[in-house]
Specification:
mainly alpha; hpI Integrase, Chain A; 4 domains; 16 helices; flat
């Protein structure tokens, strides 16, 4: 097992499913001295919890809070970089510690949230002050509009903290312009700020101006063309799976198949939510159980019909090639993988490790750069629409509680062709009705019209 550097107060524990969980725990000595910073579960991703070298991640933020508490207790001056109560920095810190963030924001989305938060807090205004150091009371609707425009136009200036020694002018941070218009980043910043404002204001209203509503609600967002995510085809998914099996990574091919056929989210596949006990288990021997951690929904996908028709023969053939290294289906390491002389235990894939493998294997399979596990799931959702399932049937398979699944289904030529066929059939049916009607028009009605023409002396 690889020994990794653990920051202060961070403990590593082996969980029941074989994963390593990281926890930030203040020792009893400091608890007796009055430290009230709560202990926190940092998750199972080492880089998110501790950073690549053990000096970043969520643990670094918590240790900074501890240092602030210790200095305040000793009567030492607190540095400007440390978070001050009632500031925008404080707002986001409280938001990230709330249940609204911990329970609703997925682990794979949190790094993106962090980048967006830094995009706002590290922004420097014309007055030279940093947005993160401002009091939340100072952020008015007009201020929110201006911050949005700065991010939108890519004109935000990096924090002076980014300046190099001896350089009077601060260097531009990679998060800031000039990079042209950034409508998506600006829109994400507004929505995140609005959400954080609502959550923290409800929990601790004192720092906020009660006479001023949420300044981020009502910001006029610029229209933008939203990027459509790629959707992998069935053919590409199984070409990739065959390539992965041939390269010695059958579990990677199985991950792509699971995302496509049974519509499980990639982060759930990697987190071990698809287990061998879910596949033709004792309770459902003719089905596979898919758990969607985001919604809490569990879907049983039938694998065969009463007449022994196999619905997912190709997918089951891929699963048959995956070694059983543990309870979760998608694992690596352990016996029968790579160098058999290694004694490293089997473990789950990290998101970054899987992404690198997918990138390497798709090149071997000669697939495009848009092929990802997420694209596999989008491809499966698109196939539901191409099969002309009703909304209810589609949601029954995808576990969506609303019509949100429509956003996953791409507007492909096959869907357009199916719609055109239905429209054409409707037109033919309507034309048939008109033909039946013309029998009357060519009969009594035409005779009546001829009589009128004779009476009027016209041949119109």
């Amino acid at each position: 097992m690889i020994q990794r550097c653990l920051p202060r107060f961070v403990q590593a524990k082996t969980l029941s499913d074989g994963r390593i969980g990281y926890y930030w725990v203040v020792t009893g000595h400091y608890r007796k001295l009055g430290c009230s910073i709560p202990n926190e579960k940092l998750g199972c991703d080492y880089e998110e919890a501790c950073g690549k070298e053990g000096n970043e991640g969520r643990a670094a933020g918590l240790n900074a809070l501890f240092d602030e508490w210790r200095k305040a207790r000793a009567g030492e001056p607190i540095e400007r970089k440390l978070i001050i109560f009632g500031t925008v920095d404080w707002l986001f810190r409280e938001y990230k510690q709330s249940n609204a963030y911990l329970a609703k924001v997925a682990q794979r989305s949190r790094p993106d949230y962090e980048r967006t938060i830094l995009l706002v807090t590290d922004l420097v205004t014309k007055k030279g002050d940093r947005i993160g150091d401002r009091k939340v009371r100072a952020i008015t609707p007009l201020s929110a509009d201006r911050i949005y425009q700065l991010i939108l136009e890519g004109k935000a200036i990096a924090s002076p903290a980014a300046a190099v020694d001896g350089d009077a002018s601060p260097k531009r941070d990679h998060r800031f312009g000039p990079r042209g218009r950034r409508p998506r980043q600006a829109e994400k910043a507004v929505k995140l700020c609005a959400r954080a404002w609502d959550v923290v204001r409800r929990l601790d209203p004192d720092p906020f101006d009660q006479k001023v509503p949420n300044p981020w609600r009502g910001v006029a967002l610029s229209r933008r063309t939203k990027r459509v995510k790629s959707a992998a085809t069935r053919e590409d998914v199984y070409i990739f799976a065959e390539t992965a099996i041939a390269a010695g990574y059958p579990e990677v091919g199985a991950a792509a198949v699971i995302c496509f056929e049974w519509l499980q989210r990639p982060e759930n596949v990697l987190a071990g939510y698809i287990r061998w006990t879910d596949y033709r288990g004792r309770e459902a021997p003719n089905a596979i159980r898919i758990t969607h951690h985001k919604t809490g929904a569990v879907v049983l996908h039938p694998l065969e019909d009463a007449d022994s028709t196999q619905f997912y023969a190709d997918a089951e053939a891929v699963l048959a090639r995956v070694p059983r290294r543990g309870v979760p289906i998608i694992m690596h390491g352990g016996p029968g993988h790579g160098d058999i002389s290694k004694t490293e235990p089997a473990k789950l894939y990290s998101a970054s490790g899987m992404a690198k493998l997918v990138q390497r294997l798709r090149k071997l399979a000669k697939l495009g750069p848009t092929f990802t596990l997420d694209a596999c799931r989008h491809g499966g959702m698109t196939e539901l629409e191409e099969a002309e399932l009703t909304d209810g049937q589609g949601r029954a398979l995808s576990a969506h509680t609303s019509k949100a699944y429509e956003g996953y289904a791409k507007r492909t030529m096959m869907r357009a062709l199916a719609a055109t066929r239905k429209r054409h059939a409707h037109r033919l049916a309507t034309a048939g009705t008109n033909v039946a009607g013309t029998e009357f028009q060519n009969g009594p009605w035409k005779s009546f019209q001829n009589e009128l023409r004779e009476q009027n002396g016209t041949d119109q």
